[in-house]
Amino acid sequence: MTYADLYKNELLQEVIPFWEHYSIDTKYGGFFSCIDNQNKVFDTDKFMWLQCRQIWMFATLYDELEQNKKWLSIAEGGAEFILKYGHDGVFNWYFSLTQNGSPLIAPYNIFSYTFACLSLAKMYKITNEERYKKACLKTLEHIHQREENPKGKWNKSVEGTRPLKNFALPMILCNLYNEMGSLLPEQTKKEKATSCVNEIFDQFWDSERGIILENVTLEGQFSDTFEGRLFNPGHGLEAIWFI
Amino acid sequence: MTYADLYKNELLQEVIPFWEHYSIDTKYGGFFSCIDNQNKVFDTDKFMWLQCRQIWMFATLYDELEQNKKWLSIAEGGAEFILKYGHDGVFNWYFSLTQNGSPLIAPYNIFSYTFACLSLAKMYKITNEERYKKACLKTLEHIHQREENPKGKWNKSVEGTRPLKNFALPMILCNLYNEMGSLLPEQTKKEKATSCVNEIFDQFWDSERGIILENVTLEGQFSDTFEGRLFNPGHGLEAIWFI
User: Fold this and answer.
1) Using 50, 70 and 90 to split pLDDT, how confident is the model at B110?
2) What is the pLDDT of residues B131-146, one digit of tens each?
């Protein structure tokens, strides 16, 4: 058996069936993501990161692997839920919700926005529905507005003392531009994604140590601080996948 | 050798000398708290929790064990540093500072206030200096103002969805009232500390499970959520020490 077959079997016979069987909330919509090793839901809170990634996953399976109605229906169920409950009415995306969709944690986290944007772009691609396009582009606008200070009023760093920039946002934006499909001009997507890749290699890649740093100075230099010394090999691998 | 002697020897011959020798920042004042097992300072950031606890510790050794001038001088050096750099000018206490005292992390954390209050009360007790009294009482005022919503604008919970109350604040307040010495009337201290103890036993103590919960509903009931299921045995032991 080739590795490709091995992975494909594992995905389609183990991983996807697990999520199809145990993660769908048939009562309130959306997905459960806290499931124990007896397949039992041990917590019903709904995190936007995970709702959105699951929508993206089933939409992508439908788009790229097989036009399976069940996958479409799972993706649509999730998209319905996040459009109804996941944001404050003008596409500021909460961090988490209760099972029935009441907002639990404020829209402080820009990655709730980026994952919403990714899932909506893919939903637009497979359905061509205007509401996904509108929500996706409005969310992208918020992301751009928040790029300089992603945490906004929730930012606890005192401005100016130790300005650092973080690797996670250019990394995800690189992914995002590549996933926007027809929602952005080819030229824009190419320029933006290239700029993210350059930022990663010019600024966050520490060639001396051979690692990708999570936080660097505004000049892209190593900062000998808690934040500056942080590195996360798995995060680096994730970036390579996007690049 | 009795346990009392064993602990006293360990404290006075090992623990305290370590902090006397390696933690004092003779250049900028205050204390280092990131010291590796070669006794080398590996990070110079100064966290208010730890600055204040060290001031309290040396002030308490001076107050209760021996009027050792060195201990007084260490406590005073720390108090000098926090009064100069630890707050925003009106006793809102930062979470952390750089080595030279520039504010790094905003005054979001109420425990920076409670530990400042504890150290200042003890400094007032051993020196009788008005500036400690003033700073301590102003800080206590801030703590009371923030009791209902300790994180203020940094609070990420959406109001009303899942109101819970947290064990840590009544626990520390119980300690605080007992440490205020002549700065509060005896009657006030007794009433406040008793009310904290009652809150802990009536609300956070889960008699069915035999544990102290970290978060309970406003009615003092178990909440079957991530926050509600959290318990921390060490935190419970810490509370018993205060009580």
Assistant:
1) very high
2) 999 999 999 999 999 9
Chain A CB contacts of B94 below 8 Å: 158
Q: What is the ipTM of this complex?
A: 0.91
Q: Which residue in this structure is represented by tokens 């690797």?
A: A167
pLDDT over 70, % of chain B = 100
Q: Print burial letters for A26-39: b (CB count within 10 Å at least 16), e (below 16).
A: eeebbbbbebeeee
The minimal CB distance from A104 to the residues B45, B95, B157 is found for: B157
Output the pLDDT for position A1: 85
Tokens of B163: 């109101």
**If 0-12 CB within 10 Å is exposed, 13-18 middle and 19+ buried, where does residue B53 land?**
middle
Q: Are A68 and A59 in contact (CB under 8 A)?
A: no
Spans in chain A with pLDDT lower than 70: none
At the topology level, CATH places domain A14-152 in Glycosyltransferase (1.50.10)
Q: Do B157 and A106 touch (CB under 8 A)?
A: yes
Closest chain B C-alpha to A222 CA, distance in angstroms: 15
What is the reported pLDDT for A192? Answer: 93
Map out the domains of chain B as residue ranges.
Answer: 10-131, 162-243
**pLDDT at B1 > cutoff 90:** no
Contact criterion met (CB < 8 Å) for B162 and A104:
yes
- Among partner residues B45, B155, B162, which is closest to A98 by beta-carbon distance? B162
Q: To probe the interface with B, which of A34, A94, A104, A159 has the most B CB atoms within 10 Å?
A: A104
Side chain identity at residue B88, one-letter code: D
